[in-house]
Amino acid sequence: MEKPVVEEVIKNFRYEGTFVKKTPYGGGHINDTYLLDFEDGDGKRSQAILQRMNKEVFPRPAELMENVMNVTAYLKERIEERGGDPGRETLNFIPALDGKAYYVDSSGEYWRTYTYITDAVGYDRVEKPEHFYQSAVAFGNFQQLLSEYPADTLYETIEGFHDTKARFAVFKKAVEEDRLGRAASARKEIAFVLEREDVADYFSNLLKKGEIPLRVTHNDTKLNNVLIDSKTGKAICVIDLDTVMPGLVMYDFGDSIRFGASTAAEDEQDLSKVSCSMELFELYARGFIKGCGGKLTKRELELMPMGAKVMSFECGMRFLTDYLQGDTYFKIHREHHNLDRCRTQFKLVEDMEEKWYTMQEIIKNVISQEAG
Ligand code: ADP
Ligand code: GN1
Ligand code: MG
After folding, report:
1. Which fold has domain 129-371?
2. Whose C-alpha in 53, 85, 137, 200 is 20 to 30 A from the C-alpha of 328?
3. Topology of 3-118 in CATH?
4. Nearest ligand to the CA atom of 29
5. pLDDT attached to residue 27
6. What is the pLDDT confidence band of residue 281, given thresholds at 50, 70 and 90?
7. Residue 179: how many CB atoms within 10 A of its CB?
């Protein structure tokens, strides 16, 4: 970020104190995130999060911000009702000078800024299983808190975000076009996807038959999208609300599993390290189902293992599509980064296929203990 841009952006938000410095922050793949430091007249420091929103990924940032403002306002009321702290348990925006929730800079880039939630960490890996459990309760609770939210008032910030069937079609087109000549280096992975069209179609078929309900879901439930309180170890705040829109509860469950229950990082190159931990799967299922507070149908509960498989498959297919199309969607930090990421996801799918019976048994068990 160039200095004049920083100055322009910062002076257009209602910050308190004098700007001291900005530091790139967090491990997100989409937005550019910075931590800003300010100092007041007495030398007291305060901090804020500043984000340049990704216009390629989110083509209608104003609609997106309307969603996020409405959802956070609603969450604040629910949090207050239960005696929580809305300053810490949901995102709080610092408005622009004109009162809007975002600022458009002179080159047309969209910026927004939140109060910084202190003494809390967004983990890129499960360091303590208890954190994973807490994140599950928080994402389940998020689902429960929004269960009465009028879903039809939300914009679809990314069309067909988890429409795995539609993503399969985009993937096939990317393979056929092979604009960068990369398909030859991913033959095995391409075959892996093509052999599993049934996985891509699974939820869209059930939706069509009316067997599962659309709900308001988060849709991007990675462990680093929930902040864990450094003192208590409890998950305090679900963040990254850009994709909150109608979806399936299995997406939220499944996305957490593919990221957090993996025994290795999302971009691990040594695939022998990658598997889906059944201990973490069970732990997350317990927390999530408990957090949902009895709101889910029997069918949804039984479909949780399928959620994990479909989301790992879909995410791997998205990484592979981006690799084939020239890495224009997910930020990459090395050559073949998206191909490496795709391989871990497919390794997880294979591992889940092997552990399918165990996953079903775990879920049955958890349902009988937690869903009652
Ligand atoms: P992306 O869409 O790129 O993933 P996020 O909104 O998830 O962007 O933000 C990136 C990271 O910044 C998060 O994983 C988290 O660590 C940190 N972060 C975001 N918002 C806050 C906040 N209000 N307080 C503290 N940390 C935050
Ligand atoms: C992106 O924004 P971030 O890094 O939390 C992506 C998710 C993927 C994830 C893979 C808007 O999440 O859908 O599952 O990367 N978000 C968007 O790590 O596409
Ligand atoms: Mg994020």
Report:
1. Aminoglycoside 3'-phosphotransferase; Chain: A, domain 2 (3.90.1200)
2. 200
3. Phosphorylase Kinase; domain 1 (3.30.200)
4. 2
5. 87
6. very high
7. 10
